[in-house]
Amino acid sequence: MTEFDLIRRHFTRPTPSAVLGVGDDAALLQVSEGNVLAVSSDMLVSGTHFFADADPFLLGHKALAVNLSDMAAMGAVPRWATLAIALPDADEAWLGKFSAGFFSLAQQQGVELVGGDTTRGPLNLCVTIIGEVPAQQALRRSGAQIGDDIWVSGTLGDAALALAHLQNRFVLNEAEFALCVMVLHQPQPRVALGLALRGIATSTIDISDGLLADLGHILDASQVGAQLDFAALPISSTLLGYMQQPLGRQCVLAGGDDYELCFTVPATRHAEVSHIAAQLDLPLTRVGKVVAGRGCIVHDAAGNPLNVEACGYDHFR
Known about the structure:
Blueprint: H1 3-11, E1 35-45, H2 56-74, E2 77-87, H3 92-109, E3 112-120, E4 124-134, E5 149-153, H4 158-166, H5 174-185, H6 191-196, E6 203-207, H7 211-222, E7 225-229, H8 237-240, H9 246-254, E8 260-265, H10 270-280, E9 284-291, E10 295-299
Parallel strand pairs: 2-3, 7-10
Antiparallel strand pairs: 1-4, 2-4, 5-8, 5-9, 6-8, 7-9
């Protein structure tokens, strides 16, 4: 099978919203009137972001999901994607499952694959996602204001707990692992939440490297500080059983791979956030407040500052 056979067989689909899709030197895209483009790229590398024997269907899902999460954080409607993939060999069965996982999520989110590249090499996946958002409604990291409430979606820490189990740093029972590992391998990008937060959130970010690390980006961009209530952080019943252990706290605050949204909202708009939670059937939890100064302080249930060592994942540490 040639490179072009591989592309035609596994990665070519109709692209009705593109002027020109897969098959030429570049795609041609028409931006809707009044919108700007939101563009983001994420790379997944075998041995760094996933295990070499990862389920290809779930890997196809996650390769796109992590990019969709960036669109969610910007309040953008995802429209198009490109995929650059390095493969050790042209394994038909693997490619069939990978592309099925990728296109299953793409169809669900209305995303068209309009180009990319293939080459032989160590397994490496790079997706570029392109979305649209009205210029004045894009969500950013830089708008948090003193007095805003800090919110997060979903629950935190399960993906990191599953990874700790897979890396033999912790042992979960079979039922616990089954619940946590799906959060790790099949994250659900909060695109609908991002759209609902337009005009309400003052800043937004997706939680990919850990709550403290990613909230820290909002604080730096907005030049403010934060106080978090550790007891308010949303965690699953599985992780709750391990919160007395150091790893439990680490997973919640700095584990990464959550792909939930962290966002700030004026305290006067609490009811609107609660309405969004009900509409989307998605838990949204107020976990702290934006304050003057710099940095983030995490308080325990008694109001005492917690000593937090690691703040999140960093590829070069």
